[in-house]
Design goal:
Elements: H1 30-51, H2 57-64, H3 75-102, H4 106-127, H5 134-144, H6 154-173, H7 182-200, H8 206-224, H9 232-242, H10 252-267, H11 270-276, H12 282-301, H13 307-317, H14 322-350, H15 354-372, H16 376-392, H17 399-423, H18 428-452, H19 457-482, H20 492-510
Helix pairs in contact: 1-2, 1-6, 1-15, 2-6, 3-4, 3-5, 3-6, 4-5, 4-12, 4-13, 5-13, 7-8, 7-9, 7-10, 8-9, 8-19, 12-13, 12-17, 13-17, 14-16, 14-17, 15-16, 18-19, 18-20, 19-20
């Protein structure tokens, strides 16, 4: 029996400062979420403005923010995703408003908000719902815990949340009427663009580019789903991107062809089982529940009138590991400080009239979505004044007290979120690497066997998909463990070697599968068969 190596002693990781405020390229579809949420908020805002009931905007805003979700998914999946988000929002706000009406104790309200924040964190991570993840749900429900409420008012207010959520669902689904395969086309274009980046990469920099290509190809295959004829050309485009994983030296000419193809495409009860399969997320839930509760209680002890701000901050800064939490904490503090300065500057204009208040809120919502993908701190510069201006719909508040509370709650949430993340260790991270290694090895062996013997196209595709998913899971497990403090020893070198061997097997299994460069792309409408060209205005 082989002798086990002695685990290395646990030691804290250095917390990096480099790159904290560096701007990344803007997200390619940021405008879809931004303007969808703006439209979903604008309609009820204008109706309430006409009725003279802007005090109800907090409830309609809760439902309207559901329009931020699902924009990276095909419309069938988007319909389900946004519907579940709306129902989760109504349920969370309902629990929060009931608590606000019945619970006389502020510490108990903080505890309730924190427990809901933990549920949001675990469920959103387990379901991989995508941006903006748990933060918006936590913001909405945590705020509702501290809205003055009578129990008889709860059904009516929940009706407003549901109505605004239904409008958000319609806004998210409306583009399907004119571009029914838009999300699939974007997913395929991302795969082609990632493959082009791989073909342009220098030999020393291929590992990140190879991982990005594998992730983009995997996401595109999930988006394409079923075997419908209208998606065959997109499937061939994804296969063309996948073939780049098998490519040898850099090929700038092929990279340019892939980018050109991508430009054409761009133009134009189960939950319980899912959560059990994601048991490694339990530490994140414990961290959020503990950190948010302590932050809210500390905020109350310091005399803040908005302890839910501390709850939201703690929930927002706690990330997959300690290093990522440290980075998010610094970004959150910097963004909120600059956001408070911006709030102070625009407050006189916001108080000049109700129309100006609505306009500024919508503008900041768009700005938040435009900038958040570039760096979290930059998006927070818009989120902070937007959150404060939402409170102005119920009536003006002393500006000095608002700014002081927000800054105090930010510092409290950041400090306690970091502290809890350091003290509540994630001992599952190293074990998860071992599990991911085993699955990746098994999938690689199956892929090597398929490459060596006779194998049908469908079997080869299924084997490649399994290996690709296993390699992505291994990379995710390694990234989490690499940034976690007080972690048991895990096989870094073996993980890197298995990843290299896995991509080698992936390339061998798919070698030679490169479709023609002039494959057609699917039509916009159902039943059409004409080819699309870049001159088509809808491309």
């Amino acid at each position: 029996m082989p002798k086990l190596s002695k685990p290395l002693p646990a030691r804290p990781l250095p917390l990096p400062l480099r790159g904290l405020v560096r701007l990344r390229p803007a997200a390619d579809i940021w405008h879809k979420a931004a303007f969808s949420a703006a439209v979903a908020m604008a309609v009820p805002d204008l109706v309430l403005l006409a009725l003279g009931r802007l005090d109800l905007v907090l409830y309609t805003a809760a439902g309207a923010l559901c329009a931020l979700y699902g924009h990276d998914r095909p419309y069938a999946a988007r319909a389900r995703t946004v519907a579940w988000v709306v129902l989760a929002t109504v349920a969370g706000v309902g629990a929060a408003l009931t608590g606000a009406a019945l619970l006389p104790s502020a510490p108990l309200l903080v505890l309730g908000a924190s427990l809901l924040a933990a549920v949001h964190k675990v469920v959103c991570d387990a379901t991989r719902i995508g941006p903006p993840g748990n933060v918006v749900l936590t913001f909405v429900t945590s705020s509702a815990f501290f809205v003055p409420q009578r129990i008889g008012e709860v059904p009516g207010h929940l009706g407003l949340v549901l109505a605004a959520g239904a409008l958000a669902w319609l806004v998210c689904m409306a583009p399907a009427l004119v571009r029914p395969y838009g999300p699939e086309r974007i997913a395929a274009a991302r795969a082609l663009e990632a493959a082009a980046g791989l073909l342009r990469a220098e030999a020393a920099d291929t590992a990140p580019a190879r991982h990005a290509t594998a992730a983009a190809v995997s996401a595109a295959r999930r988006a394409l789903g079923g075997d419908t004829t209208s998606r065959d050309a997109l499937r061939r485009a994804v296969a063309r991107a996948d073939a780049a994983l098998a490519a040898g030296p850099a090929d700038p000419a092929e990279a340019e062809r892939l980018l050109a193809h991508a430009r054409v495409l761009r133009g134009g009860g189960a939950l319980g089982a899912r959560l059990r399969a994601h048991a490694h997320l339990a530490p994140a839930g414990v961290r959020v529940a503990t950190g948010a509760t302590l932050a809210g209680w500390a905020s109350l002890a310091l005399g803040s009138h908005h302890p839910y701000w501390a709850v939201v901050t703690a929930a927002a800064v706690i990330q997959a590991n300690t290093t990522a939490t440290w980075q998010r904490a610094v970004q959150r503090a910097l963004g909120n400080l600059l956001g408070l300065l911006l709030f102070t500057a625009v407050l006189p204009l916001a108080r000049s009239g109700e129309v100006a208040l609505v306009f500024l809120t919508l503008l900041l919502q768009i700005g938040a979505e435009a900038f958040i993908a570039r760096n979290y701190w930059l998006g927070s510069v818009c989120v902070t004044p937007m959150a404060l201006l939402l409170g102005e719909f119920g009536g003006p508040h002393p500006a000095g007290a608002l700014v002081a509370d927000r800054w105090t709650d930010t510092l409290v949430g950041v400090a306690l979120g970091l502290t809890v993340c350091a003290l509540v260790t994630n001992r599952r991270a190293a074990g998860r690497v071992h599990e991911a290694l085993g699955r990746a090895r098994a999938a690689r062996v199956a892929a090597e066997a398929a490459a060596a013997g006779p194998c049908s196209a469908d079997e080869a595709r299924a084997t490649r998909d399994r290996l690709g998913a296993a390699l992505l899971a291994l990379r995710e497990a390694v990234d989490v463990a690499a940034g976690e403090w007080w972690q048991a020893a895990w096989p870094r070198r073996r993980a890197a070697e298995e990843e290299r061997e896995g991509y080698r097997a992936l390339a061998a299994l798919g070698a030679g599968a490169r479709p023609a460069a002039d494959d057609a792309v699917p039509p916009h409408g159902r039943g059409a068969r004409r080819p699309l060209h870049a001159a088509d205005g809808r491309i």
